[in-house]
Write a structure and sequence with these properties.
Layout lengths: L9 E5 L8 E6 L2 E6 L2 E7 L10 E11 L7 E7 L2 E9 L2 E5 L4 E4 L4 E5 L4 E6 L7 E10 L10 E5 L4 E4 L2 E10 L2 E2 L8 E8 L4 E5 L5 E8 L2 E3 L2 E3 L4 E5 L4 E6 L3 E8 L5 E5 L2 E3 L2 H13 L32
Antiparallel strand pairs: 1-25, 2-22, 3-4, 4-5, 5-12, 6-11, 7-10, 7-12, 8-9, 8-11, 10-13, 14-15, 15-16, 15-17, 17-24, 18-23, 19-22, 19-24, 20-21, 20-23, 25-26
GO molecular function, one term: metal ion binding
Family: Belongs to the pirin family.
InterPro entries: Pirin, Pirin_C_dom, Pirin_N_dom, RmlC-like_jellyroll, RmlC_Cupin_sf
């Protein structure tokens, strides 16, 4: 998925200097962004107060939207580099196609994982015949320097492992949770899990104290470490936790995001994750010239033009503004 802002803002992130080394409860509010077609998203990362959670560097939550009489998601071909995209749905379908020739419909609780590596382009859209509701999250994972120029590839995993407790089912999307490992390829120690809680459930989720964590509220009413989280908000939790108390007052859906704090400093602009201003400038030029990122065949429409670069040079800095 793309950042479709016509005036894309610079995000500077990475480094351990601003990681909360102890447990915290920092509630992050989203900003609303129009994504394309009838889809409006709530952007949680990058945020004014928090740039990353582990290697997770971009989080959009959208829906549930009634798209029965709408085209739904319509994201034209656009480029990526230096990151992985994670598509996760609670309702609806998203048709993914990319410059490698991949063509895959991603459905609820299935993992669509695209590793951009050095360069890829893709498009995402609701199929012409689609479900009434569209509800999901789109996330990016920054690739470490040793792997950011890897060959691009796409993975689809329809059957993911789960961790269960009374009133709780945790689907392991990426990484590992309580010894259960996702089949999705990762390049840094991290975890992404979808948490389904039944009304009245109380659970304590085991965590790695060396990771930093956040919880994205997808639906329902739940308390995370005693803090009520509403759908479309995210609670940053810091490090130093060995478990996480959860309580649901209704059926609720959450996403747990965590990972080892990302040590490298990054420059993130539009749909690119890089290490310098020069890399961003070159990537934008190559996308506009039609080189490096390939062509997405089969999409009905033009590719997305890159926005104008900010007037000053882009510099990598810390994890918070």
């Amino acid at each position: 998925m793309s950042n479709l802002d016509s005036q894309a803002a610079l995000s500077v992130c990475g480094g351990r200097g601003f990681v909360a080394a102890e447990p915290v409860r920092e509630l992050l509010s989203p900003r609303t962004v129009k994504l394309g077609g009838s889809t409006e998203v709530r952007r949680l990362l990058p945020n004014l107060g928090r740039r990353m959670v582990g290697a997770w560097c971009f989080v959009d939550h959208y829906g549930p939207d009634d798209i029965a009489d709408e085209p739904g998601m319509q994201v034209p071909p656009h480029p990526h580099m230096g990151l992985q995209t994670v598509s996760w749905l609670h309702d609806g379908e998203v048709l993914h196609r990319d410059s490698l020739g991949s063509l895959q419909t991603v459905r609820p609780r299935e993992l669509g994982l695209m590793t951009s590596g050095r360069a890829i382009s893709h498009a995402e859209e609701s199929p012409k015949s689609h479900a009434k509701f569209l509800h999901g999250a789109q996330l990016w994972v920054a690739l470490p320097d040793a792997h950011r120029n890897t060959e691009p590839h796409f993975q689809h995993h329809a059957d993911l492992p789960t961790v269960t407790a009374p009133g709780l089912t945790a689907t392991v999307i990426l990484g590992a949770l309580d010894g259960t490992v996702s089949p999705g390829t990762t390049y840094t120690p991290l975890v992404g899990a979808d948490l389904s809680l039944s009304a009245g459930a109380e659970a304590r989720l085991p965590l790695d104290p060396d990771f930093e964590y956040a919880v994205l509220a997808m639906s329902g009413e739940a308390h995370v470490d005693g803090v009520p989280v509403l759908p479309g908000s995210m609670l940053y939790l810091g490090c130093g936790r060995s478990e996480l108390p959860l309580r649901a007052t209704s059926d609720a859906g959450l996403m747990l995001l965590g990972g080892e704090p990302f040590e490298e400093e990054l420059v993130m602009w539009w749909n690119f994750v890089a290490r310098s201003n020069e890399e961003i400038v070159q990537a934008r030029e190559e996308w506009m010239k039609g080189t490096r990122f390939g062509t997405v065949h089969g999409h009905d429409g033009a590719a997305l033009p890159a926005p104008q670069l900010p007037p000053g040079p882009l510099k990598p800095r810390g994890r918070v503004r």
